[in-house]
Amino acid sequence: MTDADANNPCPICASEKTKFLFDSWDFEYGYPGTFPLWQCRDCRHIYLIGNFTPEMLTDMYSLYYPRAEIDVEQYKPLPERTGFLSWLDGDSAGCHRWVPKNVRVLDIGCGCCEALGYHKSRGCEVWGSDADENVQKIADRYGFHVHIGLFDADNYEKNYFDYVTIDQVFEHFTEPERILQQVFTILKPGGKLIIGMPNAQSIDRFLFGRLWSGWHTPYHLHLFSKQSAALLLKKTGYLCESAQCKVPAVNLLTQWGLLFVHGKQGEPMHFRPPPRLGTLDSFGSGLECLWYIRLYRFLEKTRAFALPVRFADALGIGMNRIYIASKPS
Are 47 and 3 in contact (CB under 8 A)? Predict the structure, then answer.
């Protein structure tokens, strides 16, 4: 029996009205193999089929994600921005923007700890969790409480946090329902959960097809529709307060860039823009890479893609959604 013929019920609503979409691959970082994507016809949830052990997940993020060469000296916390340019750039797409001052916050999937620095500068008690061991050197240098490894609520006190943020990470979890149940136990009554994740119903998914950056195979295991996200939050005891499209303007630029630099199966993309920390990690020829980066920086500086992204957000078809939910008091 092939993957396309198998019976794979929806992991969110348990419906058996599902369909095979296609076999996807890692066209960014070159993780080997192909992985089947399925969609539920009822709640519109999209999910990847794969048997990922904790050891495999740790290797995926430590060996293939572009953080191994982080330059700790270049670390900068995310800045606090307001005004028209902040709106145009889509700064509110970051979960950290929805966290007030002087609260106790946990950032699950804290990455390079930039959001932790932002919260700390605003008087918050900050905690982090990340599967990538490369993050440890930043946490050690700047004194952040970061647990390295897969998220486990047993590492934290019950009813402890005012806010928990999961920014572009929730779609990576193998068992999202279990994660929400665990987060529920460490949130204070009345505490807020803020999740940012790709929008499986975005116009970009249909425009870019199999090269949509939101697939991000095999790292994205679940791609939520508005229906499946609301269903899961309700199922795990949360009150969903809002669900709105908020997308950084640069995301559309990066998506267009992927059309020209994406890798073949088992190969990384040719080159990519500089990460937030460290120097340019290039895979291509010097001249080709220089042309790409200069054009990318020009379009980024002129905000050439900003207005289309804001328009898509207003229509609810942007490539990212922010969900704000609360634990009942």
Answer: no
Residue 308 lies inside a defined structural domain of this protein = yes
Concatenated DSSP letters of 45-98: -EEE-----HHHHHHIIIIISTTTT--GGG--PPPP--SHHHHHHTGGGSGGGG
CB atoms under 10 Å from CB of 123, counted, come to: 10
Q: Where are the alpha helices (DSSP H) in the chain?
A: 54-59, 84-89, 114-121, 136-142, 176-186, 203-208, 226-235, 250-261, 286-301, 306-315
Does residue 220 belong to any structural domain of this protein?
yes
Amino acid found at 316: G
The confidence band for 285, taking pLDDT boundaries of 50, 70 and 90, is low
Q: pTM of this prediction?
A: 0.91
Single-letter amino acid code for the residue at 301: K
CATH number of the domain enclosing 116: 3.40.50.150
- pLDDT given at position 70: 67
| Parent domain of 197 | 52-253+304-326
